[in-house]
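Collaborator request, handled under Task 6.
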Amino acid sequence: MLIRPICPTDWPSIMAIQAQCYLDLTPESLAVMQSKWQASPSTCLVVEQKQQVLAYALVHPWLRGDAPSLDCEISLQASSSWYLHDMAISPKAQGMGIGKQLITHILNQAHKLNIEGVGLVAVQGANTYWQQQGFKPHETSKKLTQSLTSYPADACYLYLDLQRQMTQC
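Structure tokens returned to the collaborator:
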């Protein structure tokens, strides 16, 4: 399996995977998804096997304790933290360990670039999975509380503090 940056020809596969994976919320539009990629093309990734996209991750700089509203285009924001906006694995590729490989790749990249940490909003019951990966519930900004109204009721903001993780080693 190859983990690589997203290229323009990947978008039909990415949009198909998004539609297959998110059943509790309306999929975001192509323009919204691409705005994340355009904000940080080097950190938005796909997992490919035999020239077929099996998974994707949209990661971009964003303030710790905050998250963009769903279905809103973003622009580049300077921050020492990243936001994992979306990570989805094609149903036909689940159980292959792709999620663990992709998150390990993202975190290794973050460590190399001295990123302070990575935040995300877990939906559809995924908070347990993310907590197993080391993410923890984190204090949120007042702005995030408003942004979370665009997410399903079970949405939970989690953060992985990479600086603390390094000092504990």
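The cover message to the collaborator said: "The beta strands are 2-5, 45-49, 52-61, 81-89, 117-122, 136-137, 156-161. Residues 98-112 form the longest helix (15 residues). Please let us know whether this matches your experimental observations."
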